[in-house]
Amino acid sequence: MLGNIGPLEIIVVLIIALVVFGPKRLPELGSSLGKGIREFKETVTGEKDDDDVKALSATQATVAKAPEGTPVATAPVEPAKAEVAEDKNS
Is residue 62 part of a domain? Predict the structure, then answer.
């Protein structure tokens, strides 16, 4: 029953989406839906390596400046230790 979706049904759904969300938000919704599907696919297939993502986010981290006269902590900060789950398929 669900496999019999034709072009007429797709057009009706798109018109309803256009009326509900409006022409300005529809491209935003499409791009965010595409990004979500892409991330889900990468997660399921394991294309992205978690180590690369962590290293990238650590190198791109920004430090906020404290206002002048604000005391700043000088104690060394240890990096957070992450637990790594073993792959059940290996």
Answer: no
pTM above 0.70, yes or no: no
How far is the C-alpha of 16 from the C-alpha of 79, rounded, in Å? 49
pLDDT above 80 (res 90): no
Amino acid, single-letter form, for residue 48: K
**pLDDT range class, residue 9, cuts 50, 70, 90:** very high
Query: Is residue 34 in a domain?
Result: yes
26 found inside a domain: yes
pLDDT at 42: 92
Let me know: does 26 contact 18? Beta carbons within 8 Å. yes
Taking residue 17's Cβ as centre, other Cβ atoms within 10 Å add up to 14
Radius of gyration, alpha carbons of the chain: 23
